[in-house]
Amino acid sequence: MTELRNVEIDLARFRLRVFVMSLVVISCFLLLAVRLVYLQIWRHDDLRAQAESNRTSIVPIVPNRGLILDRNGVVLATNYSAYTLELTPSKSINVEQTLDDLAKVVDITPRDRRRFKKLMDESKSFESLPVRSRLTETEVARFAAQRFRFPGVEIKARLFRNYPYGELASHVVGYIGRINQAEKAKIEDNDDQANYRGTEYIGKLGVEQSYESTLHGTTGVEQIETSAGGRAVRKLASNPASPGNVVILSIDIKLQKLIEDMFGERRGALVAIDPKTGEVLAFVSKPTFDSNLFVEGIDQENWQSLNESPDKPLLNRASRGTYPPGSTYKPFMGLAALETGTRAATTIINDPGFYMFGGHRFGSPENERGGPMDMHRSIVESSNAYYYSLANEMGVDAMHDFMAPLGFGQLTGIDIQGEVRGVLPSEAWKRKYYKRPDQQKWYAGETISLGIGQGYNSFTMLQLAQATATLANNGVKHKPQLVVATQDVSTRVRVPVANEPPVDLGFKPENIAIIRKAMVGVTLAGTSAKVFAGAGYTSGGKTGTAQAVGLSQKEKYNAAKMEERQRDHSLYVAFAPAEDPKIALAVIVENAGFGSASAAPIARRAFDYWLLGQYPSEEDLAAVSKGLATVPTGTPRVAAELPWPPPPIAR
Question: Which pathway or pathways does this protein act in (predicted)?
Answer without folding.
Answer: Cell wall biogenesis; peptidoglycan biosynthesis
